[in-house]
Amino acid sequence: MKSYFVTLGFNETYLLRLLNETSAQKEDKLVIVVPSPIVSGTRTAIENVKIQSYRLHYPEPEVHEIKLSDFNTTLSQILDYLLPLPEPIISDLTIGMRMFNSLILINILISKKKFTVYLRDEGGGSTVISFNDNAINALLRDYTKEEMRMLDVIKRNNGISTTELAKVLGKSEKTLLNKITELKKIGIVTQKGKDRKVEITPLGENAMKLIEKKLTSSVSNLQKCGQKASPF
Amino acid sequence: MKSYFVTLGFNETYLLRLLNETSAQKEDKLVIVVPSPIVSGTRTAIENVKIQSYRLHYPEPEVHEIKLSDFNTTLSQILDYLLPLPEPIISDLTIGMRMFNSLILINILISKKKFTVYLRDEGGGSTVISFNDNAINALLRDYTKEEMRMLDVIKRNNGISTTELAKVLGKSEKTLLNKITELKKIGIVTQKGKDRKVEITPLGENAMKLIEKKLTSSVSNLQKCGQKASPF
Predict the structure, then answer these.
(1) What is the share, in percent, of chain B residues with pLDDT greater than 70?
(2) B102–A101: do the CB atoms touch at under 8 Å?
(3) Domain A142-219, architecture per CATH
(4) Which pTM was predicted?
(5) What DSSP letter does each residue of B145-198 carry, written as one string?
(6) Domain spans of chain A?
(7) Any idea where the Csa3 N-terminal domain is (chains A, B) (predicted)?
């Protein structure tokens, strides 16, 4: 069981495509949040979703009107509809009003639910970008100094063996293997080949960019204070 | 000094309005990320921004083309332009392609920079919703059990005095006042009147919703395991 949480504008095509491509089932949830009052173009789109959902055995849409107000009041209404939903949450943020797409994204992120979000190229291209809670968690995570150092060594020696890595870091191979298992679970390193060489993943590269930025700012802050800076 | 980080479609009106309403200065940064290759409607909009920026002493736009690819490759390109920018980052996520609005929002959030983001009602209404890094941090924060308990008591007794609150929580008034100062800084409680009564803010109400959800799920998880559940 999964839950669709989307907004809708004048065109239901992208929503129906999302339901089709993610194999929506009758027993899934389909929650549509739209600005209040519902304008006639959106009402027509909702009616079309209802008809197609019935015909194609997709979940019946539940439509909720959101009264636009300040950030917290608007967020609060959307949260009330999102929080009780079963995970994972599936959304496409290229449907309907831009304002609602951003609000839905924030709601999904702060809910800390499992999710997959799809972004479609509206420019006519066929690109679909998707990301999930694992990716965002890896990017938002505060890495420890020890983890930063390990990632730094792996990045500088991409494809390093665990034996070599343990030696460079001054750790036992057992401790190191536990840590690698953890970082693999987060999705930022991977092991390849029969000798299990350690590599940074593309997600790990982005996490490293954020870490490096953080190190650079703390180094420059330290330098501003006239202290000797140490990267770790 | 501040940095504008936005995308652009066929219409530069919202961007010029953002620059005007936030008093953009010549020395600020204005970075525009657009999908590659730039289509002619966007090229015209960029030219118009250049002309108006020159005329109105707004910052000169720096335009970067982003090659749409998978999530990590696309994110990486945008991060490279965002990370070096001076804070705060100002953005309006109701300009241009929806896909880019979501990517910009994610980039801003993971960069952990100070920011203010504006969302405009494209439906013709005059509503503008804005939010900043403080609000998102308060919502994403992991509250300790002690903080949850304190917030719960404040919420159930909105407008409680610090003396009473200290008594209920079994804490010294000094310890309590330090904690209240911290929660006020996060933005989730406030003190009102000459007797400094403690109240939950609208942001705090939303943070509480997320906490309650978390407590409910952990209680139901515990119950599933056949253990006795305690809310704190």
Answers:
(1) 94
(2) yes
(3) Orthogonal Bundle (1.10)
(4) 0.92
(5) HHHHHHHHHHHHTTTB-HHHHHHHHT--HHHHHHHHHHHHHHTSEEEETTTTEE
(6) 3-138, 142-219
(7) 2-119
User: Which CATH architecture does the domain made up of A3-138 adopt?
Assistant: 3-Layer(aba) Sandwich (3.40)
Give residue B203's pLDDT. 98
ipTM value: 0.92
- Supply the angle between the helices A173-186 and A162-169 in degrees, to the nearest 10: 110
Which strand (E) or helix (H) includes residue B90?
strand B89-92
Q: Between chains, do B93 and A99 touch, taking CB under 8 Å as contact?
A: yes
**Searching chain A, which residue's CA lies closest to the CA of residue B206?**
A76
Torsional class of A204: left (φ above 0), alpha (ψ -120 to 50), beta (otherwise): alpha
Using CA coordinates, name the residue in chain A closest to B208: A76
147-176 of B, contacting A, C-beta below 8 A? none
A201 CB neighbours in chain B (<8 A) are: 72
DSSP output for A133-185:
HHHHHHHH----HHHHHHHHHHHHTTTB-HHHHHHHHT--HHHHHHHHHHHHH
- Does the beta carbon of B94 lie under 8 angstroms from any beta carbon of chain A? yes
